[in-house]
Design goal:
Elements lengths: L5 H37 L23 E8 L6 E8 L5 E4 L14 E3 L5 E3 L2 H15 L17 E5 L6 E4 L3 H17 L8 H17 L12 H22 L6 H78 L1 H36 L5 H13 L1 H4 L1 H8 L2 H10 L5 H32 L5 H52 L13 H21 L1
Antiparallel strand pairs: 1-2, 1-7, 2-3, 3-4, 5-6, 6-7
Length: 543
């Protein structure tokens, strides 16, 4: 019996074409809007957050983040081999047979890990059981029919992805395991997946992915990472799993060992179909927009002022029509809850930044005790080490955020877009960034003070840095609360407000002059208006 027959293959092929067609439309639209946004930003139309500390330039750190021996399970032979791991400053993980190989003029690693979109699983045994339970449900099997998985030692952790190669890694002991898991989590968070780093492309691609998912009815939170083709393949595979795999699995006959082999064959066939469609489609899409950009960008720059005036007029009309709809929903569903929630999450964030200020004060004191105006760079190395290893050195400060896990998990039961560890890690990530910026700002100010021959430069510069630090800490705290509250509010608002406002918004599109229509998205403007209204309500509560 052919469970993946011509009809099923045709269904999958049509689904792939449909998702790609939707994404193409969204990407081209957002690319044009991204060019408008770029022109507006260059004209100073929409300033970003007013950070006070000086940001460390990209590439300012070059030393490896972490090195050491770990034991890795092979992908093909499944044997365990000890390898020397090196986490590079660009968050690429390399592994070598031994430490000496890294010292070569042109080191050649045994392998590299590009971990955008991955996650760290502390207990692989529990993760395997969860995956088996999911698989049993998909294939309509009793979990007892599946083979018992091998049990891994407590010192093993997994760097996992639902669709790509996973890595089983063993540390020497529990302490080493904890340190390396923290490092791998940082790598998974920061690793860059996109092949094209142009900001217009990145913004357009991310928005097009989101809108494509929403058009398919896949609302809410979604996390993935990787190259453009990997991300496109992920959303297509998710849709195939949702629409088709259940029907295929239900046709597979026989005991588990036979069904498992048939399933693997089906998945390989589907992966091949998706890959063969996505790669050329994305290549064509990317080439098209890159060729069009030099032709349309000068026109967009000329249109910035008239576009701004046109948008302002539409926004005013939009406000007149929708505020009366939005405010009652806000009063009923939002305002009564935010103050109570703020009481739960406020103290840990404030305490985290207070703890971080104490850690910085201590490090600046150590620097001042060794300060030599003739050779400041020698002393900066200790500060850079402290900043570079902020995921570990700042742990007393970042730990303050951890206590929010339970209350945030309780909120997740009601607001499914709140994911406690992701939310907490976002806050910790910003804290570490402010730490690095504070250290860099201190170095910049010290050098300036030496040139200007200022008395007591260490104390003077510390005062300047801490004034800016406190401003950035307040701003970061506010943005953290905004993120949590918007994760709660936006999914409900998308379902309640957008349909209610549709009758008001759609006719406004007719007010846009024909030459401007490709550069103005009425629904994007509504999203910004909605975000602005929600931001104002949240900020009033925070104040």
């Amino acid at each position: 019996m052919d469970v993946f027959d011509a009809n099923m293959k045709n269904e999958v092929a049509n689904l792939v074409k449909s998702v790609l067609a939707t994404f193409t439309t969204e990407y081209v639209k957002f690319y044009a809007l991204g060019l408008v946004k770029k022109a507006e930003d260059e004209a100073g139309a929409e300033p970003g957050p007013a950070w006070q500390l000086t940001e460390r330039p990209e590439g300012g750190h070059t030393d490896p983040l972490k090195t050491g021996f770990l034991t890795k399970k092979g992908a093909i032979k499944k044997n365990w081999k000890k390898r020397w791991f090196v986490v590079r400053s660009d968050y690429v993980v390399e592994y070598y047979e031994n430490e000496k190989q890294v010292q070569a003029a042109k080191p050649k690693p045994k392998g590299k890990m590009f971990l955008a979109g991955y996650r760290v699983v502390e207990d692989p045994n529990a993760g395997i059981i969860q995956n088996l339970e999911k698989l049993a449900k998909q294939m309509q099997l009793d979990i007892s029919e599946l083979p018992k998985p091998k049990k891994y030692p407590e010192t093993v952790f997994e760097v996992q992805h639902s669709r790509r190669r996973c890595y089983m890694i063993e540390a020497a002991n529990k302490e080493e395991k904890d340190a390396w898991m923290a490092m791998f989590r940082t790598v998974c968070w920061y690793a860059w997946g996109f092949d094209n780093r142009d900001p217009v492309h990145v913004w357009a691609f991310q928005n097009a992915i989101r809108e494509t998912r929403w058009s398919l009815g896949r609302w809410g939170w979604w996390s993935s990472g990787g190259s453009e083709t990997q991300l496109l393949s992920d959303i297509i595979n998710d849709e195939i799993e949702y629409q088709t795999l259940g029907k295929i699995y239900s046709k597979i006959p026989g005991p588990w060992i036979i069904r498992s082999k048939i399933r693997d064959t089906v998945l390989k066939t589907i992966d091949g179909m998706v890959s063969s469609a996505v790669s050329p489609a994305w290549a064509a899409m990317s080439k098209t927009v890159e060729e069009l950009r030099p032709k349309v960008e000068p026109t967009i720059k000329e249109l910035v002022d008239p576009l701004g005036k046109q948008k302002a007029q539409i926004i005013e009309k939009m406000k007149d029509g929708v505020v009366g709809i939005i405010n009652p929903i806000m009063d009923e569903h939002v305002k009564p809850h935010l103050t109570k929630i703020l009481e739960i999450i406020k103290s840990p964030v404030v305490e985290g930044y207070e703890e971080l200020k104490g850690l910085l004060d201590k490090q600046f004191g150590v620097f001042a005790s060794k300060f030599n105006p003739a050779q400041p760079d020698e002393n900066f190395r200790d500060l850079d080490y402290f900043s570079r290893w902020s995921w570990w050195e700042a742990r007393p400060a970042t730990q303050k955020f951890d206590v929010m896990y339970e209350p945030l998990w309780a909120l997740h039961v009601i607001f499914s877009d709140i994911y406690p560890w992701s939310t907490i890690y976002n806050g910790q990530d910003q804290l570490r960034k402010i730490l690095d910026n504070a250290v860099w700002t201190y170095q910049v100010e010290i050098k300036k003070a030496i040139e200007e021959k200022i008395d007591n430069p260490c104390e003077t510069c510390k005062t300047v840095v801490f004034e800016r630090f406190e401003e950035d800490a307040r701003l970061a705290t506010t943005l953290f609360y905004l993120k949590i509250f918007k994760d709660m509010i936006m999914p409900a608002f998308n379902k309640l407000v957008k349909p209610a406002c549709k009758m008001v918004i759609d006719p406004l599109a007719e007010l846009i002059p024909e030459p401007m229509k490709q550069f103005i998205d009425i629904h994007d403007m509504f999203d910004k208006l909605l975000n602005g209204i929600i931001d104002d309500v949240i900020k009033n509560i925070l104040n």
